[in-house]
Amino acid sequence: MARNAYVTDLKTLQGECSANYLRLLRLVGDMEQGERREIGLGDTFTDAANAFALRLHVRQNAPYTTLVEISQTGPLDRVIKHPRMRVHLYHDVRMAEVIDFQRERHFSGRYRYPNTRMHQPDEKLQLNRFLGEWLAHGLAHGHSAFVAEVP
Known about the structure:
The protein is built from 2 helices and 7 strands, in the order αββββββαβ. The protein is α+β, with helices and mostly antiparallel strands.
C-alpha cells in the first residue's frame, strides 16, 4: 500500500515557534550580545557533581533578530554529547526557530523517508517541539545557577 506524502502543517509549526519565542524571552530577558546565563536543572547545592544545567548564550543581537545558542551540560559531559542548538528569535513576527541542531543546519519543512541523513519527514517540527519541551522544563524546574570561576 502506498504511503501518502507528509504535508507540512504550517499552523502547528508557527504555533510552536510562537510559543518558543515567549518561553525564550522569559529565559533570555534583556541579555546583551555575548552574555551567558546558566539555569540549574538539579540540586546544584547538595549534589553539584550530578546536576544538569541549561546554558544560554546570546550570540548575536540585532534590532529585529537575536541568535541564541542553547546547550545542556551535566555529569556525563566527557562521555556523551549533550544537546546543543542555535535558535533565531524574530522579534517582528514574535517567533523563534531552530536553525542549527548538533551542528547541522538548514532543515527543510519535510523530507522523503527514508533518506541518507535519516531525518524524519517532519524533522523541523520535531526539533521545534523538542526546543519547546526543553524550555518548558527549564522554566518549570530551573533555578539560577551561579558557577564560581576558578582563576
